[in-house]
Design goal:
This protein is of the alpha+beta class and about 200 residues long. The protein has a single domain, classed as Multidrug-efflux Transporter 1 Regulator Bmrr, Chain A, CATH 3.20.80.10. The protein is about 30% helix and about 30% strand. It has a nine-stranded antiparallel β-sheet with strand order 1-2-7-9-8-4-5-3-6, covered by helices on one side. The chain starts with a helix and ends in a 5-residue tail after the last strand.
Length: about 200
C-alpha cells in the first residue's frame, strides 16, 4: 500500500500543477467562426507587458520570459505581485528580433500598474482586435510552428482574410507540461471576416 501511495504521489503533484496552469486567467475572447482547428476570434482591449529580445525564436522567448516574470512577481520592484496569465505571446519585429509579451490581468487599468523595474519593459494598451487563429498541441518546435503558420496562411487566403499584423505565436503552458498536453497557437490580426 505504501509503495502504491509513493508511486501515485508524483502523479498527484503533476496533476495539481497542470490544474494550476490551466486555471490562470486567459483573454476573454469571443469565437466568431470555428473550422476544425482554425478560428476567427474577437478579443477585447487588454494591457500587455512586453520586451524585445534578439536571437533565435526559442532563445528569445526564454530571454524575454525572465525579465517579464521578474516584473510581475515583484522581484526587484516595490508593490504587489501581479498574477500570471496565459498565453505568453511572441511576435517578430525584424528577422532576428522578437517582442515577448505577458498579458496582464483584466482587473488592471494601465495607470494602476506598477512601473517596471527594467527600462526595457514597456506596458502597452492594446485595442480590441479580430484575430485569425490556428490551435495545435505539442512542443512548439520551429518546424511545427512553420507548418501551422503555413496552414493558417492558406486557410486565410482561401477566405480572402488579409493579415493586418506580423504573426504572433502564443504559448499557454510551461516547459514542465508534457508535450501532447501543451496548447499553442499561431495568429494574425485581420480587418475583415465575420462580425
Amino acid at each position: 500500500m505504501i509503495l502504491l501511495i509513493l508511486a501515485a504521489l508524483p502523479l498527484a503533484v503533476y496533476g495539481g500543477w497542470i490544474y494550476f496552469i490551466k486555471s490562470v486567467e486567459r483573454p476573454a475572447y469571443t469565437t466568431l467562426l470555428r473550422d476544425g482547428s482554425f478560428e476567427i476570434r474577437s478579443y477585447p482591449s487588454m494591457i500587455v507587458a512586453e520586451i524585445a529580445k534578439t536571437g533565435e525564436r526559442r532563445s528569445a522567448v526564454g530571454q524575454g520570459f525572465g525579465p517579464l516574470a521578474s516584473y510581475i512577481f515583484a522581484k526587484k520592484r516595490d508593490g504587489e505581485k501581479i498574477a500570471m496569465t496565459a498565453p505568453v505571446m511572441q511576435s517578430p519585429e525584424t528577422e532576428n528580433q522578437w517582442v515577448v509579451r505577458f498579458i496582464l490581468p483584466s482587473k488592471y487599468a494601465l495607470e494602476d500598474l506598477p512601473k517596471p523595474d527594467n527600462p526595457d519593459i514597456s506596458l502597452v494598451g492594446q485595442q480590441p482586435s479580430k484575430m485569425a487563429v490556428v490551435r495545435f498541441s505539442g512542443v512548439a518546435t520551429d518546424d511545427l510552428i512553420a507548418e501551422r503558420e503555413a496552414a493558417l496562411r492558406s486557410w486565410m487566403a482561401e477566405r480572402e482574410l488579409t493579415p493586418q499584423s506580423a504573426v504572433t505565436y502564443a504559448y499557454y503552458d510551461d516547459p514542465m507540461t508534457i508535450g501532447f498536453l501543451r496548447r499553442n497557437e499561431v495568429m494574425f490580426r485581420i480587418a475583415n471576416g465575420p462580425e
